[in-house]
Amino acid sequence: MSSNMPPTAKKVPTERSHHGDTVIDEYAWLADKEDPDTISYLEAENAYLKEQTAHLGELQEQIFQEIKGRTQETDLSVPSRKGAWWYFTRTEEGKQYAVSCRVPATGDTPPEIEPGKVLDHEQVLLDGNELAGDSPFFSVGTSSVSPDGTMLAYSTDYKGAERFTLRFRNLETGETLPDTIEDIFYGGAWSADGSTFFYTRVDDAWRPHQVYRHTLGTEDDVLVYEESDERFWVGIGLTRSERYLVLGAGSKITSEVRLLDAAEPAGEFRLVRPRETGVEYGVEHAGDFFYVLHNKDAENFELATAPLDDPGAWTPLIAHREDTRLLEIDAFAGHSVVHFRRDGQTGLRVLPKDAEPYQIDFPEPIYDVGPAGNPEFETGRLRLAYTSMITPPSVYDYDLATHELILLKQRPVLGGYDPEDYEQVREWATAGDGTRVPISIVKRKDAAKPAPTVLYGYGSYETSIDPSFSVARLSLLDRGFVFAIAHVRGGGEMGRRWYEDGKMTRKKNTFTDFVAAAGHMKEAGWSTRLIARGGSAGGLLMGAVANLAPERFAGVVAEVPFVDALNSILDPSLPLTVIEWDEWGDPLHNAEVYAYMKSYTPYENVDGRSYPPILAITSLNDTRVLYHEPAKWIARLRATAAGGPFLLKTEMGAGHGGRSGRYDAWREEAFALSWIIERGTA
């Protein structure tokens, strides 16, 4: 195929009609994964992309070597204590996957361990490299040790389809049990005595809707709960205290919890409170009472307590605040910790059982902090994770008795990285309606200004893209780039109202916020050429802003992008569609929602204007954003729009998260960064 001729996607178009509106979709045929023409087309697109980007090969290899050279390839995590063991993971140079290990424990102070050095009495639980073998894709969905530490439940996926096979290993003998369960979802929970494991299954729409009970050594698993409402999904977990199994059912806006004494796995789950539309709540066991974090008459959530014998009776403990979003509560034997968000920043507040509450303070102007690796109920320490745009991921223990923050580990960044060479700031753009939109910015102190800039965004599901560190990003910053995150509405950075103002029939705020942030970066003197980047729902953002303001951007990178949102949300047979109606609206049954979505979804709104160069990256086995969405989008851009070029890269053996091995993932990131650098410096 000539490098001057991109693939064409011409077949019989499909006609659909909704609410009196008839639409011709000339690329609907690409949704048929079993059609050999579809696979041939995707392979032709990959071949065309390879030809069009061949000149980037040297830069791509250089960036890959930079990422690799800055990474301590033989490394390990900080051990976390659970019962009689310290648990940790190792990575080894040249190997794609981590190895899970443990060593016997005494006290709260983790053992001093060195990369590459095996500890006395170290036991390997799971070796991802051994399990992966020669498979091009490998993922672990569950890795759960029984409360007594003798059994391991683990599940594996070799396709990227997020359907796993569950197995069990006796950690005392090393024997893998004959019990094998196919097609399960993520997660799971043990009973208190380790005799029983609870797991979830998905329906044809990829919705986890059933919870099963498996008793080791038996074949006939018992269905303990099935969720019939297609808007709801289910999950199962064990409290930190190991006293209760927690079965949760939730939609995007409503939740319902059931509890079961973990010592009685064959018993009946007890309902905490019946579901009430718009009310979300979670339950945490705190010894002689429950915590309940809920949003009933409390938009940013309120923390309540409830007695063990009546968990539905809620007594307020921390009242709702307009300026503070309560995110989670972690309960321990002698204290509890509230994770919260205020002014676009995360924080931690300690609630001792016998003293006044207090907040843990940190010195940087922007950062992200949260609880991490705290499986033990009886402990005098809090494990937390901390990072910023210039501080590598750091693990601390906070001593509850002395109030001392003990740095256990900061991720090594090799090659002479010095945080003093970089600066990070928080600025605010002003949207068209007057709303102030936060932007987190990082650059080298000695870099020219203005400079080529990557502007990243997401803005859906109340997911916050908090300031964090990236080794790969250094390859941009050290070439004089600015990197910025636009914390647009639809995310959760500024509380629940921030989310509500960027969903359903207010979704366009997400897009106009991003365009306002792009304008601010130029007007405030930060940026020359702007490259927009986002993935998944952030990929919808990329497609929308490309339609809304194509002249603002010198390039767009859209990863697993949700760009054919209207057609997908109209089809309730597709994975997760009905669940998504609480996020986007229901265009199938509501003409107003249909018209609103049609007015912004990227695929529907491509026209003949000049668009910036666009790189769309997807995966054939993605079950969340199906591969055909970016494939159709690129085909329509190429046929309709001016500008470009428009390129599609399809991973033929991966899922939503892309390639699974770390070296493969680094190469994929190096490819994207090489494309960005060319666009930013052209």
TrEMBL record:
Q: Which UniProt keywords apply?
A: Hydrolase, Protease, Serine protease
* Limits of the Peptidase S9 prolyl oligopeptidase catalytic domain: 467-677
Instruction: Say yes or no: keyword Hydrolase present.
Output: yes
| Family stated for the protein in its record | Belongs to the peptidase S9A family.
Q: What is this protein called?
A: S9 family peptidase
Domain named Peptidase S9A N-terminal: which ranges?
6-411
Q: By its UniProt entry, which PANTHER family does this protein fall under?
A: PROLYL ENDOPEPTIDASE-LIKE, PROTEASE FAMILY S9A OLIGOPEPTIDASE
**Claim: Hydrolase is one of the keywords in the record:** yes
Give the classification, highest ranks.
Bacteria, Bacillati, Actinomycetota, Actinomycetes, Streptosporangiales
InterPro entries associated with the record: AB_hydrolase_fold, Pept_S9A_N, Peptidase_S9_cat, Peptidase_S9A, Serine_Peptidase_S9A
